[in-house]
Amino acid sequence: MAFSSALVLTDLNDYIAPSQACIKPVEIEKSEDQGPTEIKVDREGDYYEISKDGGESKLEKASITLNDCLACSGCVTSAESVLITMQSQEELYEILNTNRLAIEQNDPSQHRTIVISISPQSRASLAAKYNMEPLQVHRRLVYFFKHHLGAHHVFDASFSRDLSLVESAREFVERFRRYMANGGDKIEAALQQQDAEKQQEAEDGKRRPRARRRAAAKNDEGEESSAQQNIPMLASACPGWVCYAEKTHGAVIPHISAAKSPQQMMGSLVKDYLATKTNTSPSAIYHVSVMPCYDKKLEASRPDFFLEQFNTREVDCVLTTGEIEKMFGEQNLQFDQLPEADIDDMFNKTVTNQDMQMAFGTAGSSSGGYLEYILRTAARELFNINDVPADPATTSSNARVIVKTGKNADVREYFLQNDDGRILLRFATAFGFRNIQNIVRKVKSGKCSYHYVEVMACPGGCVNGGGQLPNPNSEEVMSAKDWVNRVESVYQTVPGVAPEENEVLKEIYNEWIGDPLSERAHTLLRTQYHAVTQNLGNPLATKW
Amino acid sequence: MPRLELVTALEGHQDRVWQAIWHPTKTILATCSGDKTVRLWAPASHSDMSNWQCINTLEGGHKRTIRSVAWSPTGHEMATASFDATTGIWEHDQRDNDWECVATLEGHENEIKSVAWSSSGQLLATCSRDKSVWIWEVETDNDFECLSVLQEHSQDVKMVAWHPHQEILASASYDDTIKIWREDDDDWYCSDTLQGHTSTVWALDFDASGDHIVSASDDQTLRIWKMYKPNNAQGIPTPSNDPTYRTVCTLSGYHGRCIYSVSWSKVNNRIASASGDNTIRVFTQVTEGDEPAWEAAATIKDAHGVHDINNVTWFPTQQHGDWLATAGDDGVARIWRLVEDD
């Protein structure tokens, strides 16, 4: 299936099609009067309803925000150019311009510190297209943003991703302990018993009699028991998945990890830590994040990430890889002709050794390596197992973690084995809409035996995000599938360094957060989700 | 000239009957209705085929109209597609002679229009007003795994039908096209788009071999499509190296209104169509080849009175190969027999 490379903001998630019904319909309250009413429009353009006795009541303006529309993606308004120009390079140019004027007019109140965070997936996409190494891309982007455009800092989202990984793993361990304490231990024992029986039968060569199908039993309240509410934990870094879950499958929300995504962790780092460190007001910082998809724009505009106290968002603007490539053209620059600049900002995962810089990332999938990191950490914290490889799928012949590919490449299972062969942890990846369907169905019916699932909306992971650069080759030279594989392999050329070994991060964490169990930590590093309730009073919804 | 004779009329549903589908092997008819139930009908005795009764009612599984019903190839399971956006899977308990809803498949955003089991019984397809076609795999233990969500139609998808022997799916849509879906190593994809109808394609059916498709449309015509394999003798190009379908015959002027349903008998090769003009028509093939000719063989006017006829289905086996079942907006399902006389 080929996707048009001319992607527009109107597509919520390139792999989840626009829905049919508007989720923010106009509620029309019936007035007390029977019979016809008059509507009056005054000079300011406000509407008034005039009742029989001559009294006027002002009619509320229907309002729809960018957030509502992107979440819904099915309605006409999402095509409005007004909504599209919010969060675009136009906005960035304006801020840069205002800065220039502010400097000329010596008016510091108009000046904003501009911070750019680059995601490693966007970097890999550019690297694949221009045949460079990710480090070279990063250095050119530093030149482009800092030296050419006038931004102040260029950060690497791999840095804030470490925070997200650590927090996710911490949360998983908490949840798993609660699960085991609340009846989970019995469930696990039963599953392990089943595994042993299956193993025995396979060895004996017996064929299990075909089990008669029976309707899945629900408990009296039809709700999950408290043991089941904690586990499985589902990844939260993908806003496409999160918005889909909030809108369509509210029941799975308690399972979604509360840890913020790398983008939003950077938002906290920039608008809280950096702001405090540099004695700048968060509203005087303009944070742009370069991401592989459009859904990240939606994530940035969530009300949960709006700092009311400072009237500013943690991430002000998200630009996709495609949008910044457009910027090069708009600035009349050829990306491959750009000079390189040193990466000298604090939130980066680079090491400088005698004029040589090296970029580092994280082991695991191109969607952040959540599964791999949480598996490793959980094995250590929960079971004192220390020999889990950093990337089990690519480490051949390891007995500790069994990796099985499912029906398609986007669904994989990871089983942590104890020395005696018992399966202690069951993890899985589920990328793409069809695989998400299966996980959601299992979770909803209480039949999900996994403890953690890395759910991502895009098949192939984040390197295949909707905002990435399209295949520059013709289909005969390189198919779309091969192009994605190429971007993935470029992404993987950046060696992984575990968050525990990120010394800069550790220092910052201790200084900034201190106690990871504190409320402060939870406020800065975790978030919440909200099920979108169906408004049944929608006069536009016809049902027959 | 053959003619259609009424065998019996089945009354009992409280709302319009959307489909009347025969059991794959036995003389049992399943009807689904706006009254949210499925009813099963069988003759009171083998010797008296004019006396039928309702032997079972499947209810409580859906909150809205059941628009489509499909038997699994063994006849032990049934799938029901509903406007409540879920597909119900029902299993027959032979001891109690009872049907139990063992699974409910969710995922579609709105009304599901059609459901179909593949000939192997391994796959299930559903399609909906949300423009998507979903393919599910049957697993043990009441589990159905979603294999693919296909979103290439640009409008409401009205019907899905499987090839009689292969795992190839065809879908008909309000976007005036029919799409053919195949599987490659990782996923399902659209291998061909059949264009030609000038309005909504409401229904389609394969012939016994699977080499032809008949489609019924709001443009008041029936089209017969023939499959051409890559490197075919006729020189028809096959892009992407998959077989392609071309129209070889158009039956127009036979219906004055939208044609809602069409069925191609796997026993006698005849085609039956049901229309909003209240008639049922039967067609016979006269010549074969790349330009086959078909002619009208039998007609029944006002088969369900002034009410629309929603569905027509031929009996699937030799046992009653001359029988047709129809479902109408009058809440009645009728069984007809094609009598070859004179």
Automatic annotation (TrEMBL), chain A:
Instruction: Cite the residue spans of the region called Disordered.
Output: 193-228
Signal peptide range:
none
Annotated Iron hydrogenase small subunit domain residues? 479-533
List where this protein forms a coiled coil.
none
Regions of biased composition (Basic residues) lie at: 207-216
- Specify the domain of life of the species encoding this protein: Eukaryota
- Give the InterPro entries listed for this entry: Cytosolic_Fe-S_CAF, Fe_hydrogenase, Fe_hydrogenase_lsu_C, Fe_hydrogenase_ssu
Q: Biased-composition ranges for Basic and acidic residues?
A: 195-206
Q: Name one GO molecular function term.
A: 4 iron, 4 sulfur cluster binding
Q: Which UniProt keywords apply?
A: 4Fe-4S, Iron, Iron-sulfur, Metal-binding
- Regions crossing the membrane: none
**PANTHER family the UniProt entry points to:** NITRATE, FORMATE, IRON DEHYDROGENASE (PTHR11615)
Q: Which family does it belong to?
A: Belongs to the NARF family.
Recorded protein name is: Cytosolic Fe-S cluster assembly factor
In the record, what lineage is assigned to the organism producing the protein? Eukaryota, Fungi, Fungi incertae sedis, Mucoromycota, Mucoromycotina
UniProtKB/TrEMBL annotation, chain B:
Kindly indicate whether the keyword Repeat belongs to this entry.
yes
Q: Name one GO cellular component term.
A: cytosolic [4Fe-4S] assembly targeting complex
**What is one process in the GO biological process aspect for this record?**
iron-sulfur cluster assembly
Kindly give the Gene3D superfamilies that the UniProt entry links to this protein. Answer: YVTN repeat-like/Quinoprotein amine dehydrogenase
Q: Where are the WD repeats?
A: 10-41, 59-91, 105-146, 150-181, 194-227
Q: Which UniProt keywords apply?
A: Repeat, WD repeat
Q: Which InterPro entries match?
A: CIAO1/Cia1 (IPR028608), WD40/YVTN_repeat-like_dom_sf (IPR015943), WD40_PAC1 (IPR020472), WD40_repeat_CS (IPR019775), WD40_repeat_dom_sf (IPR036322), WD40_rpt (IPR001680)
Function of the molecule = Essential component of the cytosolic iron-sulfur (Fe/S) protein assembly machinery. Required for the maturation of extramitochondrial Fe/S proteins.
Q: Return the similarity comment.
A: Belongs to the WD repeat CIA1 family.
Name assigned to this protein: Probable cytosolic iron-sulfur protein assembly protein 1
Q: Which organism is it from?
A: Phascolomyces articulosus
Highest classification ranks of the organism: Eukaryota, Fungi, Fungi incertae sedis, Mucoromycota, Mucoromycotina
